[in-house]
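Lab meeting, action items carried over

1. Structure of the two-component assembly. Owner: GW. Status: complete.
Input record:
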Amino acid sequence: MFRSSHDAEVVPAGFVLFEEGDTGEIMFAIADGHVELTHRGAVIEKIGPGGIVGEMALIDDSPRSATAAAATETRLVRVDREHFMYLVQEHPTFALQVMSVMAERLRKANH
Amino acid sequence: MFRSSHDAEVVPAGFVLFEEGDTGEIMFAIADGHVELTHRGAVIEKIGPGGIVGEMALIDDSPRSATAAAATETRLVRVDREHFMYLVQEHPTFALQVMSVMAERLRKANH
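Predicted assembly:
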């Protein structure tokens, strides 16, 4: 569903994908490795292979609500707004996957 | 996008759409009036015309994470899973609207 693997890039542990408060128009799909989401310094989620991070800024144009950094060497694919809209339009299962990730995060946040 | 208005129903103030912990397979689109979402007795959101509530149970099959009740006389449209999947597949703007509502709720929950 995402572009072919030659569009993937490998980033080292510690690499910051985005910081809380940034404006951003890129979502990341994790192929290998782990990314940690932190909010005000506290880890709120670890995202592994098959996961996505950064989708909220694409959906509602708001600043990043958390900081995302690679916890290990991580292979990821960048998904820009145009590609995101294409995926939502052409691959309803992608839209459902994004909703599912968000639902899980909402349930966690409410607890 | 939703079915025609003869599928809408009017419920009185106080009518409970669903309760925290219920299993449920219906989302509600609010046409007129207001619905209050409460979690452990505290109001977490008021949803007005054009809003949706109950989408999470359709997405991930989990029990309701909050209680929803009409705060005023409310006109609403029930959207079952089959209709929801149809909307996601045929109307990408619907999927984006659902994601947008969830993103807003996530941002609120994180604050």
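2. GW to write a short summary for the group page. Key points so far: Chain B touches chain A through 26 residues (CB under 8 Å). The domain at 9-109 of chain B is CATH 2.60.120.10 (Jelly Rolls).
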